[in-house]
Amino acid sequence: MQKYILLYAVVVTALLVVVFRRYGDENRRLTQNQEALASEVLHYRTRWGQEAASAQALRLRCAEFEELRAADAARIRQLGIRLRRLEAAGKSVTETSFEAKAPLRGPSAPNGCDGPLVRSADTLPLCPPARRFHWEDPWVAVEGLVTEDSVACRVRSVDTLHQVVHRIPRRFLFIRWGTKALRQEIVSANPHTRIVYTEYIRIER
Fold first, then answer.
1. Which of 22, 33, 130, 165 is the Cys-Cys partner for 87 at CB 3.0 to 4.6 Å?
2. pTM of the model
3. Which residue has the higher pLDDT, 161 or 106?
């Protein structure tokens, strides 16, 4: 009888340890998520002067991700990926802005003129004002000034990169199991952007 009581006590103790450990892990996860939502993105530059940003990661379950990030979940489904195979998801918004000035080649107008010559009724050459140009769409804006001997312009480009890491299951006929590979998908919202290279490295512990 004592053996059964001892066995029962051991089983109950083990269950309590498992429950408290899961409760502790879940409590830490929720606390970290609250801190991540309240924190701001930290912008800094590396020792080589490169722009960098740091943000605390959210830890969401599949159902939470589907509820709190409905638009992202819909975009992932459009890629043909099941949410239950999702390993990680990320999103970054970038903005590129710069000014440039370059000389114009070829014959120039007389000194003091900021453009091609025009002639008045008495055939005296007149200098037109500098010419401006502007073009933009929802992602890129370009504006500039053309003078006698140079052109100056300002370019601004905005892009949003959506990143998804998902599992590719092993397949035999209609049976899928395990993980054959991990794949990363990156989608750019800017139609002018071409993704030249991407890499995903998972560190195994």
1. 165
2. 0.63
3. 161
> Does residue 114 register a pLDDT over 50?
no
pLDDT, one tens digit per residue, over 148-162 is 788 899 999 998 888
Other residues' Cβ atoms within 10 Å of the Cβ of residue 139: 16
Distance CA 197, CA 188 (A): 13
Which residues in 94-131 are b (16+ Cβ under 10 Å) and which e? eeeeeeeeeeeeeeebeeebbeeeeeeeeeeeebeeee
Contact 159, 188 (CB under 8 A): yes
Q: What is the 3-state composition of the chain as percent helix, strand, coil, each rounded to the nearest 5?
A: 25, 40, 35
Is residue 94 classed as helix, strand or coil in its secondary structure? strand
pLDDT, tens digit (0-9, with 9 covering 90-100), for 76-96: 898 888 888 888 888 888 888
58: Cβ contacts below 8 Å, ≥ 6 apart = 33, 36, 37
